[in-house]
């Protein structure tokens, strides 16, 4: 905690800034570019929550990767693997909306613990099936859907807890730390899953997640009770959801943070193209696809590691706009590499990594790293606006909507990129989509001056 008198239940005000436009304490500006660890030092509960969530998140990505491999081994069908995401989409949306309402009515620590327990139970069920050698595909869909619903509620609740553990000026720095943990999850989890599945089998792989989950429980168990402050929603769940959406309509800055993210995710999601890029454009097969995915994640990690001064920026709406424009340019650059490779006659149709077009792979990975870093910077400030400008009694519901946006946006992006690539060429979705991201975000933000001029010293929803 920042001091003994404030406690976890007392929201801390934003402190003063300096003439350079950075948010700081006592008018000071952070000199180091390295990630600011102040949130971990000032709030032991946040530090435990962050560390526990990171370890548990690695386990989650281990299981998510293993489930896809397991279903493919049973069915030899990519379509059957994709059904995991589609079966869980609508339940996740409902869970995000209603889960946020639950987090705004009850003790958030208890809500997060119950949801996490259900998620842990679903992972235990996967491990049990694997140890018993029960190979029923429909069971994977049911269990992973239950897991996705529980994880959605737990995630929205944890995000609503964070502003109660830290003063407002530390929220961007906390978001940067979350960016590091998210990048570690994405890069470490799938790699660990691949090694474990190959060497030990699915049963041991799922069991690793069962064990890592206890780190997340520790972070939650050590929290104090965190009941919502202000007006507690009535018993009617649907009415509570409607009230939360009504507040979003009256909150142009929070709403814009969602809109610009939807633009970026809808038109700038090239991940679905990576297998084809590895097979018929750059070459290298699954290894190339893995490198491209890792490049995006590594970009996010690096941007958080050097976020020390960035997280002190005062004009956060402008920072979001610039970060998403940079993201769009990174995606556009990736598309340009594919276009130059295909149209220039340098495409490599080979699953052998030894035959890969190394220059194209290097430049494409660099572009994706820029996009990943820019996306992470945007996420830092979008999360900061969401946590500092929204009243505490509405944070759960707003975080629930945010979860829906984060969940649904990439799926729309996969549909856009996959469909356009099928109708045209592999490079077209990234070139067209990247250009659309830049154009639409610039035009959209210009139409909402309050978002463009959003001031972290005076957070307004």
Topology:
Blueprint: H1 38-42, H2 44-75, H3 78-103, H4 108-131, H5 137-161, H6 171-199, H7 202-221, H8 237-249, H9 252-267, H10 274-281, H11 285-305, H12 316-343, H13 358-389, H14 392-423, H15 428-446, H16 449-452
Helix pairs in contact: 2-3, 2-6, 2-7, 3-5, 3-8, 3-14, 4-5, 4-7, 5-14, 6-11, 6-13, 8-14, 9-12, 9-13, 9-14, 9-15, 10-11, 11-13, 12-13, 12-15, 14-15
List keywords for this structure.
461 residues; mainly alpha; Growth Hormone, Chain: A; 2 domains; 0% strand; globular; disordered N terminus
Describe, in plain words, how this protein is organized in 3D.
Keywords: Cell membrane, Membrane, Transmembrane, Transmembrane helix, Transport. Residues 208-461 form the Major facilitator superfamily (MFS) profile domain. It comes from Terrabacter terrae. The chain has 461 residues and is mostly helical. The protein folds into two domains: 37-225, MFS general substrate transporter like domains (Growth Hormone, Chain: A, Up-down Bundle), CATH 1.20.1250.20; 242-461, Growth Hormone, Chain: A, CATH 1.20.1250.20. Helices cover 72% and strands 0% of the residues. The chain is built from 16 helices and no strands. The longest helix has 32 residues, at 44-75. It is globular and about 60 Å long. The two termini are 25 Å apart. The relative contact order is 0.16.
């Amino acid at each position: 905690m920042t001091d003994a008198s404030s406690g976890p239940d007392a929201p801390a005000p934003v402190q003063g800034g300096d003439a350079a436009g950075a948010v700081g304490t006592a008018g000071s500006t952070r000199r180091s570019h390295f990630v600011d660890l102040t949130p971990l030092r000032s709030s032991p509960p946040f530090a435990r929550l962050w560390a526990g969530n990171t370890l548990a998140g690695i386990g989650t990505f281990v299981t998510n990767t293993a489930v896809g491999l397991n279903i493919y081994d049973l069915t030899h069908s990519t379509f059957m693997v994709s059904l995991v995401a589609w079966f869980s989409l609508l339940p996740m949306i409902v869970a995000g909306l209603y889960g946020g309402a639950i987090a705004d009515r009850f003790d958030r620590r208890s809500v997060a613990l119950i949801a996490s327990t259900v998620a842990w139970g679903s992972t235990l069920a996967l491990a049990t099936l694997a140890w018993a050698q029960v190979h029923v595909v429909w069971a994977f869909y049911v269990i992973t859907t239950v897991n996705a619903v529980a994880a959605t509620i737990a995630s929205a609740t944890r995000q609503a807890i964070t502003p109660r553990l830290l003063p407002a000026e530390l929220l961007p720095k906390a978001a940067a730390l979350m960016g590091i943990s998210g990048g570690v999850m994405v890069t470490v989890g799938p790699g660990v899953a691949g090694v474990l599945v190959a060497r030990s089998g699915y049963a041991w792989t799922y069991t690793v997640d069962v064990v890592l989950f206890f780190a997340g429980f520790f972070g939650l168990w050590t929290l104090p009770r965190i009941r919502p402050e202000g007006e507690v929603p009535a018993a009617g769940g649907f009415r509570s959801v409607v009230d939360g959406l009504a507040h979003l309509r009256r909150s142009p800055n929070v709403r814009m943070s969602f809109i610009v993210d939807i633009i970026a995710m809808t038109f700038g999601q090239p991940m679905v193209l990576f297998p084809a890029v590895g097979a018929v454009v750059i070459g290298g097969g699954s290894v190339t696809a893995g490198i491209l995915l890792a490049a995006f994640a590594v970009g996010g990690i690096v941007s958080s590691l050097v976020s020390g001064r960035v997280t002190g920026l005062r004009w956060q709406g402008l920072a979001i706009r610039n970060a998403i424009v940079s993201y769009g340019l990174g995606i556009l650059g990736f598309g340009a590499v594919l276009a130059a490779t295909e149209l220039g006659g340098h495409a490599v149709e080979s699953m052998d990594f030894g035959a890969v077009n190394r220059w194209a792979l290097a430049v494409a990975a660099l572009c994706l790293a820029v996009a990943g870093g820019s996306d992470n910077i945007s996420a830092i400030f979008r999360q900061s606006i969401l946590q500092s400008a929204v009243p505490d009694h509405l944070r759960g519901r707003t975080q629930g909507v945010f979860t829906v946006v984060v969940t649904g946006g990439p799926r729309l992006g996969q549909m856009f990129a996959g469909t356009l690539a099928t109708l045209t060429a592999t490079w077209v979705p990234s070139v067209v989509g990247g250009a659309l991201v830049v154009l639409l975000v610039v035009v959209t933000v210009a139409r909402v001056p309050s978002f463009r001029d959003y001031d972290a010293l005076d957070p307004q929803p």
